[in-house]
Structure formats: C-alpha cells, structure tokens
Amino acid sequence: MATLKCPAHAPPPSEDAEQLRKAFEGLSSSLSNFNPFSDHFRLVIDTESYGKQMLPFAGWGTNEQMIIDILAYRNAAQRISIRKAYSEAYGEDLLKALEKELTRDFERVVLLFTLDPAERDAHLVNEATKKASSSSWIIMEVACARSSKELHAAKKYYHARYKKSLEEDVAHHTSGDYRKLLVPLVSAFRYEGDEVNLSLAKSEAKILREKISTKHYNDEEVIRILSTRSRAQLNATFNQYNSSIGNAINKDLKPESKDEYLKLMRDVIKCLTTPEDYFEKVLRQAINRIGSDDTAIIRVVATRAEVDMVRIKEAYQRRNSVPLEKAIAGDTSGDYKRMLLALIGAGDV
Amino acid sequence: MATLKCPAHAPPPSEDAEQLRKAFEGLSSSLSNFNPFSDHFRLVIDTESYGKQMLPFAGWGTNEQMIIDILAYRNAAQRISIRKAYSEAYGEDLLKALEKELTRDFERVVLLFTLDPAERDAHLVNEATKKASSSSWIIMEVACARSSKELHAAKKYYHARYKKSLEEDVAHHTSGDYRKLLVPLVSAFRYEGDEVNLSLAKSEAKILREKISTKHYNDEEVIRILSTRSRAQLNATFNQYNSSIGNAINKDLKPESKDEYLKLMRDVIKCLTTPEDYFEKVLRQAINRIGSDDTAIIRVVATRAEVDMVRIKEAYQRRNSVPLEKAIAGDTSGDYKRMLLALIGAGDV
C-alpha cells in the first residue's frame, strides 16, 4: 500500500512539464540579481537546499514548492509522461534540468523519486558498486525487496544504461562471503506463486539448522536456499525451523559477536519475509543516529512511497510509539522535509 | 542462419490444424482393422515409428508424411498459431494429440520441435534435472547457447509451468563443482552489446591464467568471469589469453586426465564463443557412437534448426568431409529420418 497521493484528475503531462519549466525559470530569474560565478552564489544555493530559508527574496521557495506539488503527486507512469513531454518541449531531459536547479538532499530525493523504478534500482546498484559504505545493503534491498519482474526490469535497464550487466558489476566489486551471498541474490528470478512444498520446507529447515548450529553461515546450501526459493516457500521453511527448533532463524543467526555478514544475512531474511519491518528498522536507525543518515531516509522514502509505505509507517508507529511523519519532520527541514512528508502521505501536516 | 524452410504463403493456421486432424484420423481409421488392445498392435506401432515400413496397408506413411509436411515447415510463431487453432477447433492440445499418435524417436523430434522455444528450453532443463546422464550438458546448452532474452523467456515459462524457478531446480538437483558452475550460468542475464573493455580483458585473462596454471579450475573468480561477462567481453578476454600466453584457453583446460568437469568447462567456453563448433561436436559424437545417440541428435536439430543450423552444417562438413545430411540419412530411417532431414533443410534429398 502506497502513501503516494495522486490527484483524481492530474493535469496533462505537457502542462506539468510547462509548470516545471516555469519553476526553473522563476528560479533563474530570481537569481539574475546575483553574479552566478561568485562563491557566494554557490553557498546560498547550498544553504537554501538545506531549507534554512536564509534567502531574502520572495518567489524562491514558491518555485521549489511547485516542483514538490507536481512531482511528489504523480505516479511512475505519469512521471515518465512528464519527462517525455518536457524533453519534447524543451529539448532537455527533466532529470538534467532538476540536477542543474536543485542541490543536496532536496535534489537527491526529487531526482531519485522522479526516476522510473527500474532506472532508480539500476542507478542505486551502480552507485553501490562504486562505494564501500552500506553498499551491500543497498544491493541486497534491490535483490530481495523487489518482485522478480521489477528486479528483471532493473537488469534490463542496467544493460541499456551501463552497457554491462548488473550481476557482473556486483560480482566484480564484491568479494569473500559478501560476494557469495549477493551475486546469487541479484541473479535470482524467483517463482512468485503461493504453492508450497511442505516436505521440502521440512528438509530445508533441517539443512539450515545443521549449518547454522555448526556456524557454517556461508555454506553453499544455506545460500542456495536463501537465493533460489520463492518467498512463500521460504516462509514455510522458516516456520518449520521455528516450530521444530523452537527458535526463530534470525535469533539463531545472532551470536554475541557483531558480525556484519550475519547482520546482512538476517536482513536478507527480513527483507524477503517482512520487508516493512526491515525498512522500519532502516528508517529508525537513520533517524536516531547522531546527524541523521539522510541517504538512507531518502532511499527508503523514494523507493517505498509507491509500494508499501503505509505498512512501513504502521510498523514505525508500533515500534517507536511515534508517527513516522513526526520523526521525519523533527529530523529534517525546508523543501527537503516538505518533499519527504509529501511522499509519505503527510504533505499537509 | 536457420535451415528451417517456410513456404512463402503458408496456409492459414486453421487449415493446418484441420490437415493435422485428418492425419490423426487417417491413422486411427487405418488402425480400425486391428484390435487396439492386442500386444501385436503396440508392437506394430513401435516398429513403424522406427520407419522400417513393415506395415502392409496404404495411408499409414502418408499420414505421418502429412505431419512432417506441415510441422517441419512452419516457424515458431506459425506453430503457436496452429496449436491455438487446433485447440479451438478440437478442444485438445495439439501436443497431446501428437503424443497419442506418434511414438519413439519420431514422436520426440516432432514434439520437441513443435514446442515454442521457451517452452522447449524449460522442458529440456526440467527433464535434465530429473536424470543423471548428460544432464549437465543440456543445462549448460540452455544457459550458454541462448540469448539473454531467450534464456529469460525460458525462466518465465518455467515459473508458469512448473510452479517454481528454473534456477532452484538446477541448484537443488546438482552438487559440487557442477552446481558451482551451472547455477551461475543459468542465473545469468548477460549484457549483449559489442562494447569491450580491453584493460578488463587483460586483467581477467591474467586471473584466468593464474587460476588455470595452478589447477584452481573451480575457483570463484574463474566462475564469476565465465558466468557474468558478455560474449563480446569474453571473446576479448580469451583473445588476450591466447596472445599473451601463447595458448588457447581450451588447450590449457585439457590436462591428461579425462576430467568431466573440465570437459564441461571447455564446452561452456565453446558454447559461448563458437556455438556452431560446439553443436557440430555434439552431432559428430552422437552419430559416430555405436548405436547412435538419438536424444542428442534430436535435441540439436530441434533446438538449432531455427537458429544456426546452416553454420552447424558448414562446421560439420569442414570437420568430417561429409555433409551432415548424408551422415544423418545413413544413421537413421523412416519418418524419423524424414523429419530430421526436413528440419536441416534437406527434406527433398
């Protein structure tokens, strides 16, 4: 269940494109008083992007509000049409224009959300293969929290955009246990039906138990089961594990030591079975951190607003006794905050 | 380049379906003289299927010829239309009807060819996961000798037909080194463009050389390279290997011992770079064997007639100084022979 709100009668894409162009032009004309080459100019934009409202002249905020009012209230198909209309009318990719006009966190959330989901996933994975921090988690999310069709669409987009395959980049840029787990996960094309083979669930729960109890967490059988079985089958297997062993599998994957690979493994299981709980945790940790982790907040909001943000919000409220809207509003500011709130269905708060 | 010959103006599918129905009915009415429950009857059918022409009455051969004349001369799209028309007109799947009417090798080649390519590949892999002999090779062929799109189509069909994923069956029914190699191969969604990264080709040729020279044939880096890189990139890598090492990679993968895993690995490389040479070898070995390997002949002819059989025939002639038509005609007989020859473009021989 998505939090994204689209008006019952959205304007035609050409009109949205025109309004966006006006928003950009308003931005530029407001800026004509400035010397665009001065350092001051750059600084002002950067500060503004944090939403501190330090800019003295009117119209500025309005323009950004217009961008929010359009893009945060259109679904994926509508956003594609707007991009098409924009490029036809002005000979420029809307994404490029947004990139030029916006900055920092506001820029990132607008750009990421405006992208088509397949394009966005390909972009996230490509970015993840180029940096170290938290990249395994981003790759894992795209592999485990998308439908088989969506994951395949991301792979097709990856071919077209990067002239290579998503799997080859993941395989090339990971190593050790992480590679062993992540490459099969991104390569999967899981069956998505409800059919469950109960005797298979029993035998594979037993295999998991044997391997986990002897600490063979990276065993190929464990990885085979996690990376090839359908969500329904895995659910049955974990239920078998739970009822026959008396422990949830994720409890057994939590030894005293703070092993990052085991953490990733637990998150794989969480992402495959209860994605809303996984994303709730990502948001909670991102918000609670000293100096909140905005890339994580942006990623979760931009990728889940059109999918299951309603459930994530419920999970957040349950776990933190505070509405997600309130937590995000308290942690962010300005246009960036307004965009996030609009996407999680609290644009009027 | 396909050997399949389709008439410039094929009859409408409904007419083809009607002719096939008549062929089946002719078969049944000819049989009305027999007691269909006698053992003799069964024996006669089985013998006939080998094309020994032992049946005394007229019409029999004609009916099977009609099946050949239609199905061996229609492309994949036309065969789908005929199946649809047949099922609409007679309330029965054409495949089921063929299965009832035909037997043995003739049945197998007609059925296998009539299937839609994605359906056929899914069927071949599913069958391979259930038996031991040569199954790794069949799985490897589907993984390495199909385009990314074709392999994905087979996976989609596998979901629909078997209610699970192709990869999970392959992963579940293989083990050891074979699993390590085959699962990534069937999971791949390779990039198919011509772009080549030469410095990557150099560095990966070096990795391959290091691993092969120390006999680490099942090393994860070797498998990563073979299972994720595009055909164009692999070609560049193997060329680098050849020119910097002075040996073709497949020469280095041929130690004295008759290691089956190494043979599979060499065939992976052959299948990815020169599939016509790989399939020429499969046909050569199948034909030259004492008591020829008909399942292999049928598989290669049914899967390649519409793809690259012209090249395979050229490779066969080059290697054996005998046309493939002549070799197959000398090794097979009856309707089975006629169907094979029609598919390799020598139906009038």
How would you summarize the topology of this molecule?
2 copies of one chain form a homodimer.
Chain A: H1 13-31, H2 39-49, H3 60-71, H4 76-90, H5 94-101, H6 104-114, H7 117-128, H8 135-144, H9 148-162, H10 166-173, H11 176-187, H12 198-213, H13 220-228, H14 231-245, H15 249-252, H16 260-273, H17 275-288, H18 294-304, H19 309-320, H20 324-331, H21 334-343
Helix pairs in contact in A: 1-3, 1-4, 1-5, 3-21, 5-6, 6-18, 6-21, 7-8, 7-9, 8-11, 8-16, 10-11, 11-13, 12-14, 16-17, 17-18, 17-19, 20-21
Provide a count of the helices of chain A. 21
Helix content of chain A: over 70%
Order of helices and strands of chain A: HHHHHHHHHHHHHHHHHHHHH
Structural class of chain A: mainly alpha
Number of strands of chain A: 0
Largest interface: A-B, 31 and 30 residues
- What's the end-to-end separation of chain A, in Å? 20 Å
Rounded average pLDDT of chain A:
89
Overall spatial form of chain A: globular
**Taking Cα atoms only, what radius of gyration of chain A do you get, to the nearest Å?**
22 Å
* Oligomer classification: homodimer
- Biggest sheet character of chain A: none
What can you tell me about this protein's structure?
The structure is a homodimer of 349-residue chains. Chain A is mainly α. Helix content of chain A is 70%, strand content 0%. Chain A is built from 21 helices and no strands. In chain A, helix 1 (13-31) packs across helix 4 (76-90) and helix 12 (198-213) crosses helix 14. The longest helix of chain A is centred in the first third of the chain and has 19 residues, at 13-31. The first copy, chain A, is globular and about 65 Å long. The two termini of chain A are 20 Å apart.
